Amino acid sequence: MTGRPATSTVHHGSGRVDRDAANALAVARLTAARPVLETVAPAGEVVPGMTPRTVLVSGPPQPWDQYTGGQRRAVIGAALYEGLARDETEAEALLADGTVAVRPSHDHASVGSLTGVCTASMPVAVVRDETSGRRAFCRMNEGADRASLTFGAWDVGVGARLRHVSEVVSPALAEVLDHLGGLALTPIVRRALAMGDDLHSRHKAAAVLLRAAVLDAVLDLSRGRTAERHRALAAYLRSAEYLFLHFVMAACKAAADSASGVPRSSLVTAMNLNGQHFGLRVSGLGDRWLTAPLPPVSTLRGRLYDGRTTDDLEYVGGESLITETVGLGGMAAAAAMPLQDHSAGTPQDMIRLTERMYRITLDEHPEYRIPALAFRGVPCGIDAVRVAETGIVPAIHLGATLREGGHAGAVLFRPPLEPFQQAADLLSTP
Fold first, then answer.
1. Does the structural domain 35-246 have CATH classification 3.20.20.150?
2. Are strands 183-184 and 268-273 parallel, antiparallel or unpaired?
3. Phi and psi dihedrals of 347, rounded to 5?
C-alpha cells in the first residue's frame, strides 16, 4: 500500500489484527486496478445474465410494487423502448407478474447512473481491469438533454435520443476503440483531477481529454474524409458532458469487485440507492446488502437549476456513488474547487471535507492525487468500521432529479449511518 498505514491506532485483539490484514489485502487490490475502456456493445451481448426481458436498475433489490416515481417511470419507459409491451398498462402487468424482470445492476457486474435503467439492446461501456481481469459495465450516457431515462423521464424524444446513441454513436465509438486497442482510463482520471474535476459531478477536463483521444483516432480512420457516423460521434462528444462519468463508474465497479469477498475486511465495495433506501456492501460480507431509509430530500445541499428548491426534488436511485468507493467524487472535493457551490460551499470547506475523509479510509490512492493537498493521494478505501466508530459518513457528490423527471443540478449527499453500523456489528461477530 501507499500513504499512511491502514491502522491509525494500536489494538491487540486478534479480531482487530485479522481485520487489519484483511483490509490491507482488500485496499491493495482496489488501488492496483488499471481500467481500460475496451469497447461499447449492446448489454445483451456482454453483460452476464442479461436476457431480452431483463431491465437492470440501480439500488438495493426490492419488489416491483415498491418502485415509485421517476425510477418506476424509467423502467416502464425502458420496457416500451425495448418493445416488450405495447403500452404502459401492458408494461405494468408484465412487470408485476415477473414476465419482465427487474434486476439490480450490481448483480450483473454493472452500475447505472441515477435510475440506472438498462435493457438488452442498450449499449454499455465495457471496462476491463488489467490487473484482476474483471470486467464491469455501465450504460452509455444519453447526451445533453435534461430529460432522459437516467433522470426519470420518458417520452418520444427520450426514445429517439436512446436510438441515436444506440444505432449511430455507439458503433462509431466502438470502431474508434477497436482502432486504439482500448483506452486506458487511469491517465485520464489522474490528469482530470489535476485540472479541477472530481470525476463524479464534474467532468469538464475529462471530457476534453476523452474527446482529444477519440478525435485523433477519428482522423486516422477517416483518412481525410470524415464519415457521417464520425461527425455524429464528434457532435455527441461535444454535448455529452457526463459521458466520462459512465466510463469511470464501470472502472470503479471493476476495481471494487476485485476487492470484494475478502473475509473479515470492512472495506466498502458498493454504495447505492433506489427511490427509498440507501444500500451498502462490504468486502467481508460479500454480496449482502445493508440498507436504511434515505434522508429527506430537504437535507440535500447544492446548486439547483432555474430557481428550483429541494421541494422540487425526488430520489430516483443511483450508483454513481461507486466513484466514492475509490476516492473520487465527494471524497476528492478538494480537487474540484469549481464545484464549491454544488458541494461544501467554499474552497476552504472543500479542503476540510476531503481532510475529514482521510479519517474513515484505509489508504491514499497512488495514482489519483489532489494538487491543493500537495498532491496527496485521494482518500481511498472507505472503512465501514471507522465510519461507525467516528460517525463521519462518506461525502458524496450526487446528481439531483426533479419529481416530474429531469436533471435539476448537483448536491452533496450524506448517507445514513445505520448500514455502516450494521456492517461493523456483523464483522465483530465471531
1. no
2. unpaired
3. -55, -40
Read off the amino acid at residue 404. Answer: E
* Nearest-5° Cα angle at 157, 155 to 161: 120
Three-state secondary structure call for residue 364: strand
Contact at 8 Å (CB) between 138 and 242? no
Q: What is the pLDDT of residues 384-428, one digit of tens each?
A: 999 999 999 999 999 999 999 999 999 999 999 999 999 999 999
Contact 302, 343 (CB under 8 A): yes
Q: How many residues does the chain have?
A: 430
Superfamily of segment(s) 14-34+262-428: v583 domain like (3.90.1700.10)
Classify residue 384 by burial, with Cβ atoms within 10 Å: 0-12, 13-18, 19+: buried
Q: How many Å apart are CA 18 and CA 375, to the nearest integer?
A: 31
Delimit the CATH 3.90.1700.10 region(s) of the chain: 14-34+262-428
DSSP conformation class of 74 = H
Q: How big is the chain by its Cα radius of gyration, in Å?
A: 20
Q: Kindly report the pTM of this predicted structure.
A: 0.94
How far apart are the two ends of the chain, measured CA to CA in Å? 27
What residues does CATH 3.90.1710.10 cover in the chain?
Answer: 35-246
User: Edge-to-edge strands of the sheet including 35-42?
Assistant: 110-111, 135-139, 123-129, 35-42, 183-184
SS3 at position 110: strand
Q: pLDDT tens digit string along 151-193? A: 999 999 999 999 999 999 999 999 999 999 999 999 999 999 9
